[in-house]
Amino acid sequence: MPSDASVNHRPSLLLRLMVPFFGSDLFEILVTLFRLGKRVINSEAHEGMYQVLEHEAVLDLKDTKGKKAVYTKRQKVRFLQDNIIAYQDQAWGDGNIFAEYKCSPGIPVDRYQDGYRWRILISLRQTKNYGDVEEFHIERTITDGYAGNVEQFQTQINHQTRKLSMSVIFPVKRLPKEVLLIEENTTRTTPLGPEYRSVLPDGREQVTWQTDKPRLFEAYILRWTW
């Protein structure tokens, strides 16, 4: 009769069968597929109702004291679910950020504050289904929002986004001394030199930064001194 010690040290049948498997190519393949599956699941979990194909945001500073500014957003989206009847916009900042609000298509039907930001519910007045593509245009007039010597303009990526463009237009008599791109989550700051600036026909200056690979949940900030 074998002793307890010999029984405890004898490899189990299951272990003897699995040891060759751990070192096999099949095991490596299964591990790789498992990791890939987790990435796909995590990615799909963040897709939400739609994917953003193009996001273009422009802040037009109308006077040298920052008393009036017009924010415009163009967002081209592809819907990822059926039976979508509403679109959500969001806004934040100083001053009266809703001095005037316009959107197309759709009608703004509700607005509420969630922390530091406002969420605006836009009724589409029609039903969107998986694969449908729509282009939204938002325009907000902001008063008394940019009175400081140092100000900023921020865009947050809350959906999978393919292209992002951000611009600030400065009045002729108060051009920026410095403009920085700040990527908040990665704590990276990049000065935007002359190659990011262009002079409009009326003499105003436009600073534009864009990327084809915006990171999900990143906050991109254009900060300027003027």
Structural commentary:
By secondary structure, the chain is of the alpha+beta class. The chain contains 3 helices and 14 strands. A 7-stranded mixed sheet has the order 4-7-2-1-9-13-12, with no helix packed on it. Strands 8-14-10-11 form a 4-stranded antiparallel sheet, with no helix packed on it. The protein has a 3-stranded antiparallel sheet with strand order 3-6-5, with no helix packed on it. A hairpin with a 5-residue loop joins strand 12 and strand 13. The longest helix has 21 residues, at 25-45.
Provide a brief overview of the structure.
Helices cover 16% and strands 50% of the residues. It has three helices and 14 strands.
Give the SSE map:
Layout: H1 4-9, H2 13-22, H3 25-45, E1 50-61, E2 68-79, E3 84-91, E4 96-104, E5 107-114, E6 117-128, E7 133-143, E8 150-156, E9 164-170, E10 178-183, E11 188-191, E12 197-199, E13 205-211, E14 219-225
Shape label: globular
Order of SSEs = HHHEEEEEEEEEEEEEE
Distance between the termini: 91 Å
How many helices? The count is 3
Largest sheet: 7 strands, mixed
Taking Cα atoms only, what radius of gyration do you get, to the nearest Å?
26 Å
Proportion of residues in extended strands: over 45%
- In round numbers, the mean pLDDT is 87
Structural class: alpha+beta
- Can you list the strand order of the major beta sheet? 4-7-2-1-9-13-12
Residue runs with pLDDT of under 50 for 5 or more positions = 1-9, 31-46
Number of strands: 14
What is the share of helical residues? 10-25%
